[in-house]
């Protein structure tokens, strides 16, 4: 997936997102790339260097991801993100970086172009949140694992992932409720790092 570098992967995603009207993204572990701060993104990319032996293009990859994020402000685009509460609490970076990331999520959750939902810990799932995925319009699903990306284009697979996304979205909390969950995670983080 990253033989040619992580920057190239980000540029490829930017092309897909530019051609997509409705993007749906479910994440069970990571903050979605389109919502990451530069600092959080840097830790995500640096971790992969060790895991996958990619060339060290972290600075370029972070810049490409930040450039990619401009799509969420474009008229005519819609984004629906659903994350588990665990995404808000996993310390995959230093606490101060995570605090900045959580603060950014609070701000982004108010954007008119996107819908941001959080599935709280106390919700009973109808299906396990095994891995994250993107659904681009009704034409492709993208699933990333440690070493490869699956690009699913069969209508039956797209329908299955769309149904799965809808099930996650149905139990998520939005608006003020989502911001309250994020704020609680931020307060807990501050309390645990004092």
Q: How would you portray this structure in words?
A:
- By secondary structure, the chain is α/β, with parallel strands linked by helices.
- The protein has one domain (6-193): Endonuclease, Chain A.
- 48% of the residues lie in helices and 16% in strands.
- It is built from seven helices and six strands, in the order αβααβααββββαα.
- It has helices spanning 6-18, 38-52, 58-68, 85-89, 95-108, 155-171, 175-193; strands at 22-27, 78-84, 114-119, 133-136, 140-144, 149-152.
- Strands 3-2-1-4-5-6 form a six-stranded mixed β-sheet.
- β5 (140-144) and β6 form a beta hairpin.
- α1 packs parallel to α3 (58-68), α2 (38-52) packs across α3 and α5 packs antiparallel against α7 (175-193).
- The radius of gyration is 16 Å and the shape is globular.
- The mean pLDDT is 92.
Distinctive features:
Endonuclease, Chain A; 194 residues; 16% strand; globular; alpha/beta; 6-stranded mixed sheet
